[in-house]
Amino acid sequence: MVNIKEIDPSSSPWAPFGIQLRNSRKAKGLKQHQLARKCGVSASYVSFVELAHRPPSEKFATKADEVLETGGTLMLMWWQHKHTALVPGFPEYANHENGAEQIRMFEINIVPGLLQTRNYAAAFEAGKVRQGTATPEEAEERVAFRLTRQQCLDRTPAPLLHAVMDESCLRRTVGGRGVMIEQLLHLEQLAELPNMVLQVAPFTLGENQPFLRMVHLLTMPGRKLLGYSENEQRGYLDREVETVASLAKSYDRLAVEALNRSDSLAMIRSARRDLEWMST
Asked: How far is residue 206 from each of residues 167, 212, 257, 259, 267, measured CA to CA in Å?
């Protein structure tokens, strides 16, 4: 019998990546040399990465995700380790998000990251650079990470995504009219997908809108609930049952008060047509 060396997750910064790679490879029924051949590397390279004896390359993480059909998990882990431009606390949330069965989110002022186009994301981060709160390199990293996150929506089976957007997400023009029109068209297309529920919380909700900041809720395998929110400094992943249950209750109330799917789609189209009319 081959002696399989156990990996201590705390033994190296790259140990969690190696553990995930090994688990994903075994789940696909592949030997190290078989994965190596499919990824264009040597079997020893795969072994060293799994044992955290060497860091993986971006190219390998990308290819391994494709071969093992992980939905972008390995690339997310690679980005989390290699880049520090993200809000502290958010990488941990993103790792859970990638394995969630259901993703519920509420956003104010900005279209949720999982629903953003590349141009919208780039324009938003460019604003941070002009404000002096991010470097061009950090902005580029954030956009790339956001697009990598979106791969979780292509999993099989795909997670159910329920997004309630404050009306400000539609009315706040990011990147100019052309970028915003493209973004609103993208929302219209997403709203037609069977695993997407998009709603708008109109300004007329007034004081009945329960959240003053972004809130995300994840339903994990086994029905475990996780909550996430953030301020300008950091993000907070909440595992406390009572706290998350309270957030979920408020979210359900918001979903009832918000426009239904049909009326929400009509508002998105109206916002897009207003911009198109202004640009003629």
From this structure: 11, 11, 11, 13, 17
Q: Pick the residue with more confidence: 219 or 149?
A: 219
Virtual torsion, Cα 142, 120, 217, 249, nearest 10 deg:
150
Strand partners, 197: 162
Closest among 128, 104, 113 to 211, alpha carbons compared: 104
Tens digit of pLDDT for each residue in 110-166?
Answer: 999 999 999 999 999 999 999 988 889 888 888 988 888 898 888 888 899 999 999
DSSP label at residue 57 = P
pLDDT digits (tens, 9 = 90+) for 244-262: 999 999 999 999 999 999 9
Cα torsion angle, 64, 85, 154, 239, sign:
positive
Closest Cα partner for 235 from 259, 261, 208, 213?
Answer: 213
Cross-sheet strand order for the sheet of 160-166: 196-201, 160-166, 102-107, 215-219, 225-230, 235-238
